[in-house]
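Before we proceed, please read the two lines closing this message. Let me know whether the structure tokens fit the sequence:

…
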Amino acid sequence: MRNLSTYLLVIFMVMFWIFRIMVTFMYELGSDFAGIIPLNKTLEIILLFVVLLCIILIVKRKMIGALIYLLSYGLYFGTDLTTKISMIFEDMTQEITMGTSLSMIVSLIGVVLPLAVLIDLLLDKQRKANPKDKKTDWFYKNEAFDRKLDDRADKNNYRTM
């Protein structure tokens, strides 16, 4: 994680994750959080744990974490977003409430955020330029081995006259 965009995306992911925890907790207590309620309470709780695992994998720059994150949030929030958009376009005379618009914005964030994380991982040049190779990194990136060679080379003091 060396890019500023990655840091910002991870911070935003954690903030959105905490927001989803607060929404679920408030729903469990019997009220809504500014008109936003979970789409499915049990699936939301499972999704919170899956996203926690995905955040850890994304920090480690693993592509599988971004794919799982996109798949889980895309299925969860994408279906809600499409149903709300189609509901708005089908009945144009219906007024949009504050809760509907807020939940649509949250669903939009839930779809756009994983796409941004996946694009950030795909465009990361550092991950492609310096891949981890355990077979050779122990030799080429081992400073203790280099120091041992330097100490051994310093003891060969031949005098020339």
Observations:
- The radius of gyration is 25 Å.
- The chain has a mean pLDDT of 80.
- Residues 75 and 100 are 19 Å apart (CA to CA).
